[in-house]
Write a structure and sequence with these properties.
four-stranded antiparallel β-sheet, 18 helices, 49% helix, 11% strand, 539 residues, single chain, seven-stranded mixed β-sheet, alpha/beta
Length: 539
C-alpha cells in the first residue's frame, strides 16, 4: 500500500514538473478540446454505422462542393428544371385555383362544377396499378352501396360515443370481423385480439410503431428505441421513425427479395423495440418469412409487426382457395400487431384501415389521455380526434354485403388474373418477373431495354404503373378492375417493349431520364430535396 502511494506521488510530481512551463489557459482548454474531439469522432462513427461510409463520404463531398462559388446556384437551377418536368408529367393542382369564397353562394352550380372537375381526371377504369380496387362504375353496384352507407352516416363522429352509439358498434364489428380473418379465433392467438379503425395504412403503421415504442419502454425501459425493417418495407415505417424519434436499422433483402432473418438477428441489440415483416411487401408482392421472424421476436422479447395492408383481405381467402400461402397472422407466435387496409381488397371506401394487437396490454399504449385540460377529461384511441363515421359505416356495409362467399369469389378472380399476367410477362422476350409473387402484385424488370422507357410508352397508352428501384423495375397491383382487360395490358406491354427495342431512348416529356438518374445518383440528400420541392409545389 505504501509502495503504491509513493508511486502515485512520484507520478504526480513528474506530471507537475512537465506541465509547470505550460500556459494555464492551455491546460484548462486541453480537456475541453479533447472532449469535443471525442464527441465529434463518436458522432462521425455513429453516422458511418447508421448510413454507411460511402453515404457519409458522398454527403461530405457534396457539402464541400456546394461551398464553391456559383455551384449552389447552379444546383438550385437544375433542381428547379427537374421539378418543372415532374410537374408537367403529373399536372399541377395549383392551376386556376379559387383563392376566396364567392361573394354570394352558388348552391345550384356546385354539383355541376364538381362534375366538370371530375371529368378532367384521367381514365382510371382498369388502367391503374392498385388505386381503385372495386369493379365496375362508381355510380352503381358495390360502389353505390357503400356510397349510400356513407351518406347515411356522413354527419356522425365516433369521438362522441354517447351520441353516435351506432358508429361505435359498427367499428367494433369491423375490427372483430377483420381480426377473425387474421387468426383471432385460433387458440395460438391468445383470444385477446383487439384494435381500432384508422384513416389508412400509414396511420395504422404509425400507431403500431408508436404503441410498440411505448410498450417496450414500459416493459424494458428502452429510451433510445430502434426498429429493424427490410429495405422492401413500406416507407411509412421511415415516416414513423422520423415522427417518433426511432432509429431505423435497414436490412438488405436476400436473393429471393425477402426479409433476411440472419441480417435481422445481427441488428438486434438492447435498444431494439420491434421488427417488421410484410405480407406481402408493396414492391414485389412477396411474403416475408413471418414464422422465422416470430421466433426471433419471441427469443429476444421484442415486438413483431406484420404489414398486411395489402394482403389482409386476400391471403386468408387465397389460403382457403388452396394457394400455398405461408403463415402470416396472429396464429404465428411472436406477432404482436398487424395493420390491414379495408379500403384496398376489403373493397371499402377510401380512408378505412385497421390496426390490431395481440392483447389489451399492448393496445393501451396506443391511447392518448389528458387529465389536466380545462376542457375536461380527454381520451382518444387513434391519431385523429374527430373521425368520419360515414367511412366506418361504408366499411361495415362492404364487409357485410360481400361476406365470405363474396371475398372468396373476388380473390379467386384476382389471383387467377395475377397468375396469367405473371405468365404473360415471362413470355415477353427481354422481361423477367422479380421473385415468385405470392399474391396480386407482379413486379418485373428487363435485361434488354430501359424499363422506365417502357413505362413511358405504357403511360402514353393510358396505363399508370408503379416505378420501382433497386432493381429498376415496374409493378402492377392487380385489382378487380383488371379482370376484364388484363389481355389488353399484356398486349400493350409487349408492344411497348418492342417499341423501345426498335427506338431506344427517352420520349419527349417522359419520366425515364429522371427515374434513371434518381436511381443512380449517389447523393440521396439531393434526391430527397427534389422530392420535397416537388411536393411543395404540388399541394
Amino acid at each position: 500500500m505504501e509502495a503504491a502511494t509513493e508511486l502515485a506521488l512520484r507520478l504526480r510530481a513528474a506530471a507537475n514538473a512537465r506541465l509547470a512551463g505550460q500556459e494555464p489557459l492551455l491546460l484548462a482548454a486541453a480537456p475541453i478540446l479533447a472532449l469535443l474531439a471525442a464527441r465529434a469522432i463518436h458522432a462521425a462513427a455513429a453516422s458511418v454505422a447508421d448510413r454507411g461510409l460511402r453515404a457519409v463520404l458522398v454527403a461530405l463531398v457534396m457539402a464541400t462542393i456546394k461551398l464553391v462559388p456559383g455551384v449552389s446556384a447552379y444546383i438550385a437551377a437544375e433542381k428547379s428544371k427537374v421539378v418543372e418536368q415532374l410537374q408537367s408529367g403529373s399536372g399541377s393542382a395549383r392551376k386556376n385555383l379559387r383563392t376566396q369564397l364567392p361573394d354570394v353562394g352558388v348552391p345550384d352550380g356546385v354539383i355541376g362544377e364538381l362534375q366538370a372537375l371530375k371529368d378532367k381526371d384521367v381514365r382510371w377504369q382498369g388502367k391503374c396499378s392498385g388505386t381503385v380496387y372495386i369493379s365496375g362504375s362508381e355510380s352503381d353496384g358495390h360502389f353505390a352501396l357503400i356510397n349510400k352507407a356513407y351518406s347515411m352516416f356522413s354527419h356522425t363522429n365516433p369521438l362522441h360515443q354517447d351520441v353516435f352509439k351506432s358508429v361505435a358498434h359498427l367499428e367494433a364489428e369491423v375490427v372483430a370481423m377483420t381480426a377473425a380473418l387474421l387468426g383471432s379465433k385460433e387458440k395460438a392467438s391468445g383470444g385477446q385480439i383487439c384494435g381500432n379503425m384508422t384513416s389508412g395504412g400509414t396511420e395504422s403503421i404509425l400507431l403500431a410503431v408508436k404503441t410498440s415504442r411505448d410498450y417496450m419502454q414500459s416493459k424494458k425501459g428502452i429510451t433510445k428505441p430502434e426498429m429493424i425493417i427490410a429495405e422492401s418495407a413500406h416507407s411509412a415505417y421511415d415516416k414513423a421513425a422520423q415522427y417518433f424519434n426511432i432509429k431505423v436499422r435497414r436490412v438488405p433483402v436476400n436473393k429471393e427479395f425477402l426479409a433476411d432473418v440472419k441480417g435481422f438477428r445481427r441488428c438486434i441489440n438492447g435498444n431494439t423495440i420491434m421488427m417488421v415483416g410484410s405480407a406481402p411487401g408493396f414492391p414485389h408482392g412477396l411474403i416475408d418469412p413471418i414464422e422465422e421472424l416470430g421466433e426471433l421476436a419471441s427469443q429476444y422479447g421484442i415486438c413483431l409487426h406484420v404489414d398486411l395492408c395489402l394482403g389482409g383481405f386476400v391471403l386468408p381467402f387465397a389460403r382457403k382457395l388452396g394457394y400455398p400461402i405461408p403463415p402470416f397472422d396472429f396464429s404465428v407466435k411472436g406477432v404482436t400487431s398487424i395493420s390491414t387496409d379495408v379500403h384496398k381488397y376489403g373493397l371499402a371506401p377510401k380512408g378505412t384501415s385497421t390496426v390490431l394487437y395481440r392483447n389489451h396490454e399492448i393496445r393501451k399504449h396506443q391511447f392518448f389521455a389528458v387529465t389536466e385540460w380545462t376542457g375536461g377529461l380527454y381520451v382518444s384511441p387513434t391519431m385523429a380526434g374527430s373521425r368520419p363515421g360515414g367511412l366506418i359505416a361504408g366499411a361495415w356495409a362492404a364487409m357485410m354485403s360481400l361476406g365470405l362467399n363474396g371475398y372468396l369469389e373476388s380473390t379467386s378472380q384476382i389471383m387467377e388474373v395475377s397468375k396469367k399476367i405473371q405468365k404473360g410477362i415471362d413470355d415477353i422476350p427481354g422481361l423477367f418477373v422479380i421473385g415468385k409473387p405470392d399474391m396480386t402484385v407482379v413486379a418485373f424488370g428487363s435485361d434488354a431495354v430501359d424499363i422506365f422507357e417502357v413505362n413511358d410508352i405504357m403511360s402514353s397508352k393510358g396505363w399508370h404503373l408503379n416505378a420501382l428501384q433497386r432493381p429498376n423495375s415496374l409493378h402492377i397491383c392487380v385489382t378487380l378492375q383488371h379482370v376484364a382487360i388484363y389481355e389488353e395490358f399484356l398486349g400493350d406491354l409487349r408492344d411497348s417493349v418492342n417499341t423501345v427495342k426498335a427506338n431506344p431512348g427517352p420520349i419527349s416529356g417522359g419520366m425515364a431520364p429522371i427515374y434513371g438518374a434518381a436511381g443512380k445518383m449517389p447523393d440521396r440528400g439531393t434526391v430527397r430535396e427534389l422530392l420535397v420541392e416537388f411536393m411543395d409545389s404540388s399541394c
